[in-house]
Write a structure and sequence with these properties.
- InterPro entries: Cit_transptr-like_dom, NhaD-like.
- It is a multi-pass membrane protein.
- It is a single chain.
- The chain is an all-alpha fold.
- The chain is built from 22 helices and no strands.
- The two termini are 23 Å apart.
């Protein structure tokens, strides 16, 4: 491992980039200038503050927003001095468009989750699970398996959000159960998303590039399953014994009017995203915005029902008794904005580093010094620290002459490598916001050695059965 990082360092310091930076075209080489050094320092300092969030109580979006502003500010100064201001605008628009698609996708998913929470869908599911007599360990395995099976269809982020809501509802008051279950969900969702083009953004990028066919991804099913099961077997021993207590509102109303309908609309939204993207090549965010339209129209219908309900009383009851009261904009406002702005900071900061040329140099150094297998394994480790999207984009841009086994390997490692740290995947970052105080960077870090064991086992199984 030391040899790998020394080779990477040598490439960063001495190699010239062999590929165009982002966006393509004439650009300045700023990798060995004050601009590059300040940008690297800003990015590193921001991530240190993100890691220390629970100790210093500084929301993770703040340092990443500062890093994004710093990186593009120094880039803009350098390019304006060189008389190329338009290139900076192109680079920012390129990264901002990537963020905008992710933003609207997440915003709609979070709005649906908040709506179903208010309607008591997850409280009803919790009641069903508790009434069936499932213990904490059974629930641990049930939510993990469902995450692994749903993520290839619904994508790893949406699946993680849904399963986390279930865990939060079932494990009320048991922070230990919530923490280890959320870690398990992140690993399962990332593993499940690795063997489907729709399961993760990185797999989608490889599929859209035409490098692998749709059926080729199915070869990663067994390695992905190993990646999930190995750490899950160890983590189950940290799950508390016993069963969840009965909900305090056991005798009251759990599932409100419209809850089932909203859950069905969410499934229909996912189906819309998959169909539009698969057959018409429409970006997933566009389909998700169509899903928001479904919810808004249903909210309008509930508003009509609410007005009719109020008019049926001569003596109006309390507004808390209105079974049809629903405001979709309040659910949008309850989205995890800290997480959304954190993603903005990450994408713009890493995009700036790519614009400077560091991602291209890193890819050249890795594949030139380490060979395909070692480089592709390191890609997964890097995706846990940086983010798998720009890392995979750098690999696709360099387009090394690899066979299908190696392309499947880098697809696997980029997809599941993010599970090594909570900040390494969209699912982990989103759950840190959704289960704030229960699932943290430190909570996940305790299991990193075991997750790394599963990471290595999945690579070994892939090379064993797919070579």
């Amino acid at each position: 491992m030391a040899r790998i990082f020394l080779a990477l360092l040598a490439g960063l310091l001495f190699c010239n980039p062999a590929i165009s930076s982002i966006p393509p075209g004439d650009s300045l080489d700023l990798t060995r200038s004050w601009v590059g050094y300040i940008s690297l320092f800003g990015f590193a300092a921001a991530y240190v503050l993100v890691v220390l969030e629970e100790r210093i109580h500084l929301r993770k979006s703040k340092p990443m927003l500062a890093a994004a502003g710093l990186v593009w500010l120094v880039i803009a100064i350098a390019y304006n001095q060189a008389g190329l201001p338009d290139k900076v605008a192109e680079g920012i628009r390129h990264d901002f468009l990537e963020y905008a698609e992710l933003f609207f996708f997440l915003l709609v998913a979070m709005t649906y989750i908040n709506s179903m929470l208010e309607r008591g869908v997850f409280d009803e599911l919790r009641h069903w699970l508790v009434s069936r007599g499932f213990g904490y360990r059974s629930l641990f395995w049930l939510t993990g398996i469902l995450s692994f099976l749903l993520s290839p269809i619904a994508d790893n982020l949406t699946t993680a959000l849904i399963m986390c809501a279930v865990v939060m509802a079932v494990g009320q008051g048991n922070s230990r159960f919530i923490g280890v279950s959320c870690t398990n969900i992140v690993v399962a969702a990332n593993a499940g998303g690795a063997f489907s083009p729709f399961g993760d953004i990185t797999t989608l990028m490889v599929w859209q590039k035409g490098i692998l066919h749709f059926t080729d991804f199915l070869n990663l099913f067994v390695p992905s399953l190993v990646n999930y099961l190995v750490p899950a077997v160890f983590m189950q021993f940290a799950v508390p014994t016993g069963k969840p207590p009965a909900a305090p509102e056991e005798g009251g109303r759990r599932l409100m009017y419209g809850g089932i309908q909203m859950a069905l609309l969410f499934l229909f939204t996912i189906a819309t995203v998959v169909v539009l993207h698969n057959f018409l090549h429409v970006p997933p965010a566009y389909g998700m915005m169509g899903g928001l339209l479904y919810l808004k129209l249903y909210g309008y219908y509930l508003g009509l029902k609410s007005r009719a309900w109020w008019q049926s009383y001569d003596d109006p009851p309390s507004e808390h008794d209105d079974p049809y009261d629903f405001d979709v904009f309040s659910k949008i406002g309850q989205a995890e904005w800290d997480t959304l702005f954190f993603f903005y900071g990450v994408i713009l900061t890493v995009g700036g580093l790519g614009f400077i040329g560091y991602l291209g140099i890193a890819s050249e150094a890795m594949y030139g010094y380490l060979g395909y297998t070692n480089a592709n394994i390191l890609i997964g480790v890097m995706s846990a620290i940086v983010d798998n999207i720009p890392v995979m984009f750098a690999v696709l841009t360099m387009n090394p002459p690899m066979d299908n086994v190696q392309w499947l390997l880098v697809t696997l490692t980029a997809g599941v490598g993010g599970s090594l740290l909570s900040i390494g995947s969209a699912a982990g970052v989103a759950l840190m916001g959704q289960a704030r105080g229960h699932y943290t960077f430190t909570t996940h870090l305790r299991w990193t050695p075991i997750i790394a064991l599963g990471y290595g086992a999945s690579i070994w199984v892939h090379l064993l059965i797919n070579t």
